[in-house]
Each structure stands twice: as structure tokens, then as C-alpha cells.
Amino acid sequence: MSALPPTVDDREIWDTWLSMFKLPILNTALAVGLFPAISDRGLTTDDLAAELKVDARALAMHLAALCAMGYVEKRLGTWRATSLARTWFHPEGQGNWSHFFDAMDRNEHLRGRLLESLRTGKRPESGTDRRPAGWEDGTMPQEVAENIARFMQAHSQAPALGAARMPVWGEVEHLMDVGCGSGVYGIEIARAHPHLTVTLMDLKEVAHEAGKYVARAGVGERVGTASVNMFTEEWPSGPDAHFFSNVFHDWSDATCLDLARRSFAALPSGGRIFLNEILMHDDYTGPYHAAAFSLLMLTGTLGKQYSLAEFAAILEAAGFTEVAAQRTGGGYYSLVSARKP
What we know:
By secondary structure, the chain is of the alpha/beta class.
């Protein structure tokens, strides 16, 4: 057999995948005139957004990626174009590569979505801040759920193995994986910690698919499923910890606060909340893998990748305390934790 089992480190795969964003991100910046606007002076994100007539929230995500790529820098809260951008991408520069990069960018679909979301602050092909397809109605075709579970099973192998190695699960008796997808996280955590009971919670169609993965893994005695719409239905009582992986990054700050409050209400005193996410720097200047992933969220769900500081503000507003984060060793992921007093 030539195939090898997953490891905890899939960073090279992520780097290859997210590299496709670099040219569209740069060309989007060129299209709105970002570099000349901050070549002679520094501007805050809000002031720059007003000058370019773009959405400030979306612009912050683009600036984070461009900073990680070396084209802008942030000093004392203001942004300026670096010498790299002023030399090779200023419209008045002798060495201007802008026209060449524009001609060579074949990813017109991604480029168009990035530009539209930057200008409007809305998810392309959506006029409002709606949930991704399927969540609006609390249901989805079983075929869609099957495809979601299949994708998440492959996408999450390394970070699930990394999360499962964290010793904190020894302090938990009953973990609920909220928005579980294929259930890969809950399954791997249960495998690594035989004392633990796990509930996989998702929409009924997705929970049905997760049940198939539970059966294949042979952990059905300790891992069960719960069919619940996390936005509209009552959450199961009993778990002393809630685990969310790649869930909060799909939503706005307001929706994340709603989820945190629902978690807080369902947990017992002393209960824990865990967010498994790729974190932005606290000053939102990168790193590139988080910034590019954030732009993927912007164009697909109107979410973003959050910093630990932003998560702390959300969790503390919901009533949680003791907010902390630790890298899991599962690729680029960190495990954010907090406690209900």
C-alpha cells in the first residue's frame, strides 16, 4: 500500500492552496488605487477606506494579506505602502509591473469576488448578510450535507489530530462538537481520550452524515449525534465543554456573540468553550495563511479569521473568563479556550 496516514502537519498543503490568492489580492489592490493612496502619507484603515470608497471591514482583511506579502506596513495605527510597492506597483513608477500582473491573472472568478466584496462589504451574489446556503432554512439536501462532510473530513485531518493531542481534554467529561461537519474532531478527540463522551451536533442532514463516520471509526459507544439548528433550537444539556472548529470564522461579530451566549447558557458553571481556529495577529497584520483564509471567508460567508484579542472580546461579552490560546501543532491551528464562572 503506497498511501500514508495523515499527520498533524499539513502546512505545505495549505501554503500551496492559499498561494492562488496572491495575484488576485495584489491586482485587487491595484484596481482600487491602494498603493498610491498611501505612498506619500499614512492613513488609518477607516480613512483609507473612505478615500478609496471601499468597505472598511473588507479593506482590513486585504491590508493584512498585503502586509504579510510585504507591500504595506502598519505603524502607530496607520498604513503606508512599502518600498516594494512604491517601486514596482506605483502607477507613476518607471518599474511599474501593474499592467503585466493584470494581464497574467487568469483567476478572474476569485479576483472578481475579491473586488466586489471589497467595494461593497457584501458576499458576492448576496445582497444581505445571510447565512451560507442551507443554514438559512435550517435544512439542506442530503447530497449537499454529504459533500460538506466529505470535504471537512479531508480538510480537517491534520488539525483534528493536533487538537486531539491537547492535554486539556483530560479535564473534560462530556464534549459537544458544535457544527461538527463529518465529526472528525470529536472522533479523533474521543479516540485519544478513552474516558471522554462526545456529542456531535449539527443540522439533521449533516448529523446523519457524521453518524456514518462514527460507525466507520468504531467509536459509537462513546460518540453520538444530535440534530440541532444551533441558531434556533435549544442546545442539549449535559456536556461540560463545547468545541467549535472553523465555525466562528463563518460569521459576523454579532453572530459569533450570539453563538457564544448560547454556549454560555447551555454550559454548567465551570464549563469550558473551545474555538479551534487559525488566528490573525492581534494587530491584524498577518500572517499570510490566516489573512488569505480570511479573504476566502469574506467572499464565501461574510465571515473572517479572528485574532485572539477579538475572540477574547466576544467571549468575555458573553460572560466567559480565563480566555487563552495555545497552538495545537495541527498545521496552523490554535485552540482558544475560556470558562463559564
